[in-house]
Amino acid sequence: MVQFSTARLDASFAALSDATRRGVLEQLGSADASITELAEKFHMTLTGMKKHIGVLEQAGLVTTEKVGRVRTCRLGSRGLEEEAAWIEARRQIWNARFDTLDQVIEALKRKEKVDGGQSE
Amino acid sequence: MGDRASNGRTAVERRSELELVVTRTFNGPVRLVFDAWTKPELFKLWWAPKSMGVPLLSCEMDVRTGGSYRITFGHDASDAMAFFGKYLDVSPPSRLVWTNDEGGEEGAVTTVTFEEEEGRTLLVLQELYPSKEALDQSFVGMEDALPEQFEQLDELLITLSASV
């Protein structure tokens, strides 16, 4: 399954060593927020909050997305990685089965055509 | 929750702690798709794609409400894995429900619905597990499966087409 590298674990611990950054994660746990909103909430400059978000992003704990002039932050999907891998494995099985089933259905359709559309 | 994997045409989604939902549209009428799920000779052609790495050894299906099925995978009888259960609901050509009793009390109930739309079939397969742990463990050992080209199937289809 999913392997966490030491480097990434180090980045996570470093990211979590700061009280503001832990507060930001807690905040994003309840709702997404823009950097501006987070800066206000934690009484910081925009630049200061950007740095914190940068650290959290490096560690994969937060993802950000810029829409227009606003950069929205949300919790990263790391916690979901293992589940995502599991889901993907299921998808691959079903996809393989269904690709094969597609072919079977094509063959059945051809057969019906040949039989003049007479199915049992 | 709500985690999802979808590329190509098969979407798989964990809709809740206990539920996995697979959707796919097939380019054929419902009656053909339903046949492919309920006639053993057709079911055998696609249920164990080569990429699973384990061939289908046997397949017995008594497809009617209350009937049972037993499917074995393996290279020979000594390493066979059996999957078996009962059909709780067989309503041609729109609905199939069966139990997965090899999981004992942890076994899921599978519901497949078939819906026709302009000659195509929307298929929704739901696996409902009795507990979160059962769902989490349901896939152990199958992680390595990958889709691939099915040369075997091509040969088979040629045979099928030739036999008409």
UniProtKB/TrEMBL annotation, chain A:
UniProt-recorded name of the protein: Transcriptional regulator
CDD domains per record: HTH_ARSR
Organism in which the protein naturally occurs: Rhizobium leguminosarum
Gene Ontology molecular function, alphabetical: DNA-binding transcription factor activity
A Pfam family: HTH_20
Domain (HTH arsR-type): residue spans on this chain: 1-95
TrEMBL record, chain B:
Gene3D superfamilies in the cross-refs: 3.30.530.20
Family annotation (CDD domains): SRPBCC_CalC_Aha1-like_9
Annotated Activator of Hsp90 ATPase homologue 1/2-like C-terminal domain residues: 29-157
Record-stated family: Belongs to the AHA1 family.
Record's protein name: ATPase
